[in-house]
């Protein structure tokens, strides 16, 4: 399954319709939650299905405005409420809370069992009607969720996706995630870091300063909040975009991608560096690579316990490399090479060496302390995160 989330291009009438549906969903969810609480207090054992029956038979007829909106919305609101309680009972979530207007506004609808076909730029959604997207999409799905974030509406859904093996230009590539750069590849290609937050930091603090006297909840205050939220979203989007471009490039064009497991390299111990790595989203990087390698038929190798930055990529000499040294100057063979490039070449060489030493790829790699994540098979420790 692949999931997408894309922005909707709407006119004011549609925006109002979506806001009404999101309001309907919130109303029903909160109604269900308060009845659940009350029923529980009185000694009953409520569940989402029972509450829904009460709502359909007794409550819904009292509110004529509900007739003008899709009834799918309230059905999914009860499903969501039931799921929230299920998570709570399993110890996976907090006790469900009442939803607030303007916070995580969303609703889910389906097409009465028929699949919803999304094709191109214009889409016919059940009940909502025709909507446009800013990018062409292609998906066949059972249900869609529409949500509002910082004043814009988004459509999200998941659909079945068949992995395709893309033609590969390079056999093995080593990737070193850096502090100065986002990533350095063993073939010399460099992905510059975006540092999106730092770029907008000044603008953000200026906005916050200028709006410091606006009253919370007033029209002006809300407008200012929206402006700030939009800027935050922009920062996040720039960061996401850079990371997605990198991981897609790696997974699509290389048969084997070798990365270092930062968790063990001890880099996170350095606080300043840790912040920088978090800024560049190492865990998100690994998570994306894991599922994209499956999509595009490549193999992800996570290298552990290997001093890739301390080793000379030419003669295997090992020397100390303080973090401030940007160039690797080999004391043995005299090689002078960029620190990150040296590390990425070492990572690439690790796989080449182990492939030569044994016929069975997997076993030889396990023997030298690597985790193999081939397509269709999950790694022994895929602590990097769950798959999309
Ligand atoms: Zn050397």
Spell out the blueprint of helices and strands.
Elements: E1 2-9, H1 12-41, H2 48-59, H3 72-89, E2 106-110, E3 116-125, E4 129-141, E5 143-149, E6 152-159, E7 170-177, E8 181-185, E9 190-192, H4 196-210, H5 219-253, E10 254-260, H6 262-265, H7 271-280, H8 282-295, E11 299-303, E12 327-329, E13 336-338, H9 339-357, H10 361-367, E14 370-373
Parallel strand pairs: 7-10, 10-11
Antiparallel strand pairs: 1-4, 1-6, 2-5, 3-4, 5-6, 7-8, 8-9, 11-14, 12-13
Helix pairs in contact: 1-3, 2-3, 4-5, 5-8
The chain binds zinc ion.
Mean model confidence by pLDDT:
84
Radius of gyration: 26 Å
Output the CATH topology of the largest domain.
Nucleotidyltransferase, domain 5
Strand content: 15-25%
Amino- and carboxy-terminal Cα gap: 8 Å
The hetero compounds bound to this protein are: zinc ion
Low-confidence regions: 356-388
What is the name of the CATH class of the largest domain? Alpha Beta
CATH architecture title of the largest domain: 2-Layer Sandwich
Q: Given the helix and strand composition, which structural class is it?
A: alpha+beta
Q: Kindly report the spatial arrangement of strands forming the biggest sheet.
A: 2-5-6-1-4-3
Total domain modules: 2
What is the helix fraction of residues, given as a range?
Answer: 40-55%
The ordered H/E elements are: EHHHEEEEEEEEHHEHHHEEEHHE
Give a verbal description of the structure.
The protein has helices at residues 12-41, 48-59, 72-89, 196-210, 219-253, 262-265, 271-280, 282-295, 339-357, 361-367; strands spanning 2-9, 106-110, 116-125, 129-141, 143-149, 152-159, 170-177, 181-185, 190-192, 254-260, 299-303, 327-329, 336-338, 370-373. 42% of the residues lie in helices and 23% in strands. A hairpin with a 3-residue loop joins strand 7 (170-177) and strand 8. The chain has ten helices and 14 strands. It has two domains: 2-159, no CATH class; 170-196 and 241-373, Nucleotidyltransferase, domain 5, CATH 3.30.420. The strands form three sheets. The chain has a six-stranded antiparallel beta sheet with strand order 2-5-6-1-4-3. The protein is an alpha+beta fold and 388 residues long. Mean pLDDT is 84; it is low at 356-388. Helix 5 crosses helix 8. The longest helix is centred in the middle third of the chain and has 35 residues, at 219-253. It starts with a strand and ends in a 15-residue tail after the last strand. It is elongated. The chain binds zinc ion. Residues 312, 314-315, 317, 330, 332-333, 335 line the site of zinc ion (ZN).
